Amino acid sequence: MYLVYVLRSEKDGRFYVGMTNDIIRRLKEHNAGKSKSTKGFTPWILVFTETLPSREEARKREKYLKSGVGKEYIKDYWSRSSAG
């Protein structure tokens, strides 16, 4: 099982999309500054995850969420979930 996840920076509100098979470890790494692309924007909060059966499927979903259409999906999801 692999997870595709979306994080949101509490520092400036940006989103980050990634994939992992251990979300707890990965979130700790992001918040500890161990990821080059996220270390300047800590702390991060987990916005949502999606479970996929294989690494290949998770990679496809991650790639989609990093695309322009995927970014719009994330922003829409965030605005709907934080409005209530």
Q: β content, as a range?
A: 25-35%
Percent of residues in helices comes to 40-55%
The spatial strand order of the largest sheet comes to 2-1-3
Which consecutive residue ranges, at least 5 long each, have pLDDT under 50? none
Give the C-alpha Rg. Answer: 12 Å
**SSE sequence, one letter per element:** EEHEHH
CATH architecture: 3-Layer(aba) Sandwich
User: Globular, elongated, flat, extended or rod-shaped: what is the shape?
Assistant: globular
Q: How far apart are the first and last residues' alpha carbons, in Å? A: 31 Å
**Averaging pLDDT over every residue, what do you get?**
94
**Main β-sheet, in a few words?**
3 strands, antiparallel
Count of DSSP H/I helices? 3
Q: What is the oligomeric state here?
A: single chain
Number of strands: 3
Overall SS class: alpha+beta
> Which CATH class applies here?
Alpha Beta
Fill in the CATH topology.
GIY-YIG endonuclease
In total, the number of domains comes to: 1
Fold and architecture overview:
The protein is an alpha+beta fold and 84 residues long. It has one domain (2-83): GIY-YIG endonuclease. It is 44% helix and 27% strand. The protein has a three-stranded antiparallel sheet with strand order 2-1-3. The longest helix has 16 residues, at 68-83. The chain is globular. The chain starts with a strand and ends with a helix.
What characteristics describe this protein?
27% strand; 44% helix; globular; alpha+beta; GIY-YIG endonuclease; 3 helices; 3 strands; 84 residues
Quick recap of the structure?
The chain has helices at 23-31, 55-66, 68-83, and strands at residues 2-9, 15-20, 44-52.
